[in-house]
Design brief:
Blueprint (H helix, E strand, L loop, with lengths): L3 H14 L17 E11 L9 H12 L5 E13 L2 E12 L2
Length: 100
C-alpha cells in the first residue's frame, strides 16, 4: 500500500459528509401550554436533492414564532420518507408546547 494517508483521508471525508447533528435544547415544564406544530415537505426527483440540514432549525423557528414570544418546551422532530419510482417524498414534522 503506497498511499495510506490519502486513502484514510478520503474515508474520513466520506464519513463526515454522511453524518450531521441538529442541536436541540429543551426545558421540561410540569404544565405545558398550547401545542404548536410545523412541517416541511420536499419531493426529491431521482434522489439528487434531499432536504437540507437546516430544515429542523427552520421548523423550530416556526414553532417559536407561533408561541408569540413565550418559551418553547417538549420539542419533537420526526421524518417520514416515502419512495416512488422516480424519487422520494420527505416530510419533516416538528411539534412542541408553548410555556405559559
Amino acid at each position: 500500500m503506497k498511499h495510506p494517508l490519502p486513502l484514510s483521508a478520503l474515508a474520513a471525508l466520506i464519513l463526515v459528509q454522511g453524518c450531521f447533528t441538529v442541536p436541540v435544547t429543551t426545558t421540561v415544564v410540569t404544565q405545558p401550554g398550547r401545542r404548536v406544530t410545523a412541517e416541511a415537505t420536499k419531493f426529491n426527483v431521482l434522489w439528487v436533492s434531499p432536504s437540507p440540514t437546516e430544515t429542523a432549525s427552520l421548523l423550530i423557528e416556526d414553532l417559536l414564532a407561533q408561541c408569540d414570544g413565550a418559551d418553547l418546551t417538549g420539542v419533537t422532530l420526526s421524518t417520514q420518507v416515502g419512495w416512488v419510482i422516480i424519487g422520494q417524498q420527505e416530510k419533516t414534522m416538528a411539534s412542541g408546547y408553548c410555556v405559559e
